[in-house]
Structures are given as structure tokens and as C-alpha cells.
Design a protein that fits this description.
The chain has 425 residues and is an all-alpha fold. Helices cover 68% and strands 0% of the residues. Helix 4 runs parallel beside helix 17 and helix 6 runs antiparallel to helix 7. The longest helix is centred in the C-terminal third of the chain and has 35 residues. The radius of gyration is 22 Å and the shape is globular.
Length: 425
């Protein structure tokens, strides 16, 4: 780990000089991001690095993206009023100090489970799973449940969440394929899982869901099979390049799938790619990259709460966190259950009214601030991290007597997404 720290410091100095960092706080942000990236790559084949990735995503969306937007001056190259908002809603120095302390405490919380997520512990849990269950049969059961859920989704509105979770079981197949002892069967079910994922992604345009499930596969593969040095260097570069490419046409494709232009699927996918390549040039590329930074800038939505609370809305002192408890009760049993949504929290705590179709929220950092302010919010991020760490520890520890490790990707799916409310996590 000393090597990771040294490389992080050197890289921070080089990047700061290249980008033209506007202040020292941004240098700290870049240093933290590089450290979190190197920590993930260093640990990826030594332990189950779910916590490392969750911290990296939070650091990227809450710290790195707004710092880059300021230093690259993206507002100067974007068409006027394309998004209609600034990079941050409050003074950057105030926001970054809160964000940096929050993410650092969040990171420290995951260090408490280092000894419980080692490669040996994970392999022991998988071996126990293989001894107690027929993994191939589990995969087939998941396929059946997912198929039935897909057919019934939308028939009973109060059970939509149940059907939604049933469909999600199909995504676990690519991770479960790693637990099969026979390489031939592993390749077969990996192919089936990827094909199903591609099909659902093409139909729904939910690229984020596919991305995070592939991340789980990469993390589990790291502890089961390991990665070479070359893979650790090349794979992240390819991953970032591919993600950047996807963002160039994601917006247009979503409008096709969710709008009335035509149906989604392979035809819509091909149509969008054709339109992209026919009009592609350097200006389109830069606008696409800058637009992607705007979409990834969860910091702006979270900072809106710091402008709104407590000036117009009082601190909640944990109220929204208590609401999380009854989010587990199906509306079928509680028809009058209060509606929890990202949109309602945006309106109340951020003073911003998104469109009905928009998918945005104040995020976990914003919700932490809304409840406890700057100091309490940073401390709550540490408590939140400890909670996730305890969940990971519990499921790995008791996987020798149950099938818990199988459901870790589904259980922690929303924890990987910094923009989601705690009630969804």
C-alpha cells in the first residue's frame, strides 16, 4: 500500500500541472481519486473489493466530476442553456471541504472489514456454496423466476416491486457462472447471462444496471481467478473508453426507447449508432463528453440542498432515514404508505422541480446533509459505510451455512449508485 500512496502523490502533481488546477482543493480531489483507483486495482485480486468500488464511485460523482468541470471550463464549450444549471449551487470551497471529509470517512469505514473480505474467506464461502447447493440448478431456478416475473410485470401494480426483483435475478447469472466448477458450463451460463442482459438493456435503455452488474462480475472474478498486471492496466482504460462511447449516444437512444419515435431493441440501437457516426466530429465528441460530465455531476444536485436547508427547510434530524424503515413494506399491505421518491425529495429539499420523466435525486451526500448538517452529515456517511461493511461481513461469514453470497450483488446494487436515496439502498 505504500506504493499506492507514493504513486498517487506523483500522479496528482503531474495531472494538476497538465489540467491547470485552479486551487489546492482540486489537487486534493485528484489525489484522492487516484488513490481510490489504485487501491481498487491493488486489492481487486486480494479481497472482494466491493467497498473500494463503492467509495470510488462516490468520490467520482461527488468530487472528481465537479473539480474537472471547473478546471476544464466545460461551461465555455457547451451550447447555452443546454442543461440550465451551474456546476455547484454553493461556494465551491464550502462544498468541497464537506465532500472531502465525507468521502474520507466513508472510505475509512470500509477498512474495518479488510480481514473478512480476503480472497481466502471468499473462496471458502464459494466452496461451501458448491458443497451445499447445485449451483447450476440455482441458475436455472433464477431463470424461471425471472421469466415468470417478466410476463407478470404490470399485471398487479402493488406487486410490481416483487416482479422487478424477480427480473433482477437474471442479472445474477453472470456472477453465478463463476461459481460453477466446470469451465464449459461456466462459459455457457456466462454467455446466457450476457445475452439476457444485452436484451433487457436494449429494450429498457437501462445502461447503468448492466454496467453495475458487470462490475460485480469483475470484482468476483478478481478473487476467484485473479488478474495479471497487464489486465489491471489495460482493462480500466478500455472500460473508461467504452463508457465514454456509450454516453455519446445514450441520451438519443433513451429518447427512442422511452419516446414515440420508434421501438427500442436492436433496431433502435443500430439506428442510434448510425445517426451518431454519420454526424460525428470533434465538436460532437467534446459536447458529448461535457454533457456526460453534467449528467455525472451529482455534486450539483446535492449542493442544492445546502442552499435550501436550513434557509427554507429545517434540518430533518434523521426523519428521512426513519422513512427508510417502512419502505420495505409492500403497498399491497399498506395502501396509504407515504410516497418516497427522488423527485419529491428534489422538490422539497433542493427547491428544484424535475420533469416527470427525469431520473435524479439529492443523492446520499445531499440526504446526509439534509438530516444532520455539515459535521453530522460527514459522520453519517461513515455510519452508512460501516452499515454496508457489516452487511458484506455478515453475508460472507454465514455463506458457509446459507446461500447469502449469491445475493450480495442484488443487495448492494443501489449502494454502488451514489445518486440513490438511502431508502432504495
Amino acid at each position: 500500500m505504500k506504493f499506492v500512496v507514493i504513486v498517487s502523490i506523483i500522479s496528482t502533481v503531474l495531472i494538476s500541472n497538465y489540467v491547470g488546477v485552479s486551487n489546492n482543493i482540486h489537487s486534493i480531489v485528484y489525489g484522492l481519486e487516484i488513490y481510490f483507483i489504485l487501491t481498487l486495482l491493488y486489492n481487486i485480486d486480494k479481497r472482494l473489493s466491493i467497498g473500494d468500488f463503492i467509495v470510488l464511485m462516490a468520490s467520482t460523482m461527488y468530487l472528481l466530476v465537479p473539480a474537472l468541470m471547473f478546471d476544464l471550463d466545460v461551461q465555455a464549450t457547451m451550447p447555452p442553456n443546454l442543461f440550465g444549471y451551474d456546476i455547484l449551487a454553493i461556494e465551491p470551497e464550502i462544498y468541497f471541504k464537506f465532500g472531502i471529509w465525507s468521502i474520507m470517512l466513508f472510505h475509512f469505514s470500509f477498512l474495518t472489514i479488510k480481514s473478512f473480505t480476503t480472497r481466502k474467506k471468499v473462496l471458502d464461502a464459494i466452496e461451501a456454496l458448491q458443497s451445499n447447493y447445485d449451483v447450476e440448478k440455482v441458475i436455472k431456478i433464477f431463470l424461471i423466476i425471472a421469466s415468470i416475473s417478466l410476463l407478470l410485470k404490470g399485471t398487479v401494480s402493488s406487486l410490481n416491486l416483487v416482479f422487478f426483483l424477480g427480473i433482477k435475478l437474471s442479472n445474477l447469472i453472470i456472477v453465478l457462472s463463476l461459481f460453477l466448477k466446470e469451465p464449459r458450463k461456466e462459459r455457457r451460463y456466462l454467455f446466457i447471462g450476457l445475452a439476457i442482459m444485452l436484451f433487457f438493456t436494449a429494450r429498457s435503455a437501462m445502461f447503468g444496471d448492466a454496467f453495475y452488474m458487470l462490475v460485480f462480475y469483475v470484482l468476483f472474478r478478481g478473487v476467484t481467478k485473479g488478474y495479471s498486471i497487464q489486465a489491471k492496466v489495460v482493462a480500466p482504460i478500455i472500460g473508461v473508453a467504452f463508457a465514454s462511447f456509450i454516453t455519446l449516444f445514450k441520451g438519443a437512444y433513451i429518447s427512442i426507447v422511452w419516446g414515440s419515435e420508434t421501438k427500442g431493441g436492436i433496431v433502435g440501437f443500430a439506428q442510434t449508432l448510425t445517426n451518431l457516426f454519420s454526424s460525428f466530429n470533434e465538436d460532437v465528441f467534446m459536447i458529448g463528453i461535457n454533457a456526460s460530465l453534467y449528467r455525472l455531476n451529482q455534486a450539483y444536485l446535492s449542493s442544492l440542498t445546502m442552499e435550501q436547508v436550513p434557509k427554507n427547510v429545517s434540518f430533518e434530524n434523521g426523519e428521512t432515514l426513519l422513512e427508510t424503515l417502512y419502505s420495505f413494506v409492500p403497498r399491497f399491505f399498506w395502501p396509504g404508505k407515504p410516497i418516497l421518491s427522488d423527485r419529491s425529495t428534489m422538490i422539497k429539499y433542493a427547491g428544484y422541480t424535475p420533469t416527470e420523466s427525469a431520473s435524479m435525486g439529492i443523492g446520499q451526500l445531499g440526504e446526509s446533509y439534509v438530516n444532520f448538517g455539515f459535521i453530522g452529515g460527514a459522520l453519517w456517511m461513515m455510519v452508512y459505510g460501516l452499515t454496508i461493511a457489516l452487511v458484506i461481513r455478515y453475508f460472507l461469514k454465514y455463506s458457509k451455512i446459507n446461500i447469502g453470497i449469491v445475493f450480495l450483488p442484488m443487495l448492494l446494487f443501489y449502494a454502488m449508485k451514489p445518486e440513490t436515496m438511502f431508502s432504495k439502498v
